[in-house]
């Protein structure tokens, strides 16, 4: 609110910097439908980044990861003292310096889904408070009302998790998919594929067909990525050694891996059966279940912004 009063009954004006991108446009639609006045800046918009920030009660920055720190720094001094500033990026720690330099309300919010969602019911978002709570609580109430779930975290914990959930997972696809395809002979490699392999290759190929720059940001800008890759390399080395030592050693390694997954294993295995249409009582047909996976698959498509976006001007 322009007068600085914290009136919880008044819907704030929300500015979205990068509002033409995937997540930016999704939030613009959701917030507009909830009754908020939404201001948008992006390339070729009438409003600039700083104009949006100056006129908003809550400014959400939704630009490519490599541009996020500089865009936050660009707009921070233009956000009113009684207003709030947040990033919607897939990494949090790189945004901290710019946010911590301002005295007003700040927080970090990462939608754990892609922009293809039609509604927020069942969706999860990671929320890391930094300073203040007024606008953050308003947004949290709105998200809860629409059926979303908030996972409270810290920037460090979040980025460590993303090193596995995004950097490791998708980085491995770049190595795994070509190697699998190379082993399948003939003019029709998929003739050799089991249903499980075909599903895995489909998910990998879907990721590999997106903008490579997105993965460059996710892997290279997360300081925790080298550690999780080192751990994976150690496990692969152990697997290679086990294959040389014989079937019983490999079997023991698989059992240990199953134990490491722990109590999540049975639930996840059941979900995989349903996706393949092999469950005893599938909740949905296999094709529909796979479509559901594709819509929410945790990938950098959540950062589908205009990769030509820069922090200067619009």
Task: Summarize this entry quickly.
The protein has helices at residues 22-33, 49-55, 68-76, 96-100, 134-145, 155-183, 195-208, 212-220, 225-245, 247-261, 264-275, 286-296; strands spanning 13-17, 37-41, 58-61, 84-87, 105-111, 124-131, 149-152. It has 314 residues and is α/β, with parallel strands linked by helices.
Rg, nearest Å: 22 Å
Please give the order of strands in the largest beta sheet.
2-1-3-4-5-6-7
N-to-C order of helices and strands: EHEHEHEHEEHEHHHHHHH
- Distance between the ends: 24 Å
Mean pLDDT over the full residue set: 88
Which structural class do the helices and strands define? alpha/beta
* Oligomer state of the chains in this structure: single chain
Total DSSP E strands = 7
Number of helices: 12
Low-confidence stretches: 1-5, 293-314
- Biggest β-sheet, characterized? 7 strands, mixed
Helix share, percent:
40-55%
How many domains? The number is 2
The shape, in one word, is elongated
Question: What fraction strand?
Answer: 5-15%
